[in-house]
Amino acid sequence: MLGENIVFNGYGITDTGKRRSQNEDFFICDPEKAIFLVADGVGGESGGEVASRLAAEHFVRLITPFVLDSDATIPFNHPNNGDLFQSTLAHAVEGANAAVIDFAEEHKTHRGMGSTLTAAIFHEDRIYVAHIGDSRLYRVREDDMQQVTEDHTKVQEMVKENILAIEEARKHPQRHIITRCVGRKKQSKPDIFSIDYSTEDIFLLSSDGLHDMLRDEEIRLIVVHAETLEQAGKRLIEAANEKGGKDNITVVLFQPYSVSEQESPVR
User: Fold this and answer.
1) Residue 198 is part of which domain span?
2) Does a structural domain hold residue 241?
3) CA angle 64, 27, 118 (to 5 degrees)
4) Whole-model pTM?
């Protein structure tokens, strides 16, 4: 549940880009519940579009009761020494995974579809993250921008093994091959964790159509120089399209603030 004194500003926007005929990205931006999510579908034809929407909507449907009521009935096994909300997030990802798989099995034209899913949710004074695929969560803090999530891609594995340098990874021909996603295997393997925050932080969720086109520093500068989250979101889309817009582009920005302050940040 939301903290007594913390509420959120949020803004989300998606764009088809310059090269694609349809948009397979899907986002949810719900400042009232403090649920923020980006999903990027894969599967060709309409498969990716269906997968991203299914994944996002099922995930949010499963997680919402626990966001609204910390005493909601738990429909899954939970280890006594574990973080209950992390277990809840894992349960929601598995539900989204099953929904995509079941739909694909019932519709032959959609077999093989899948989706990334990166969600950030405020709960009991922490930002909880559920992440699978290569969409990203960033945290902009003062003069620094941190990539909070780690891409689940072949190229990222090569970077971790010191086979590739980070700069080489940006241009590698296999950089779009994801190693984990929702809807391709019976059991998904999401990263589930929580992070701290301050009311000076701005958080950014993005599909790879943004961070493939713009370097991190370019993204940071646009965010910190924008007067509002809406202005930042629109400028990020414009900048990615100016660099080529090779894929669908989605951004969700959100910022916590304290209601004890005289007014919310201008963002």
Assistant:
1) 6-258
2) yes
3) 75
4) 0.91
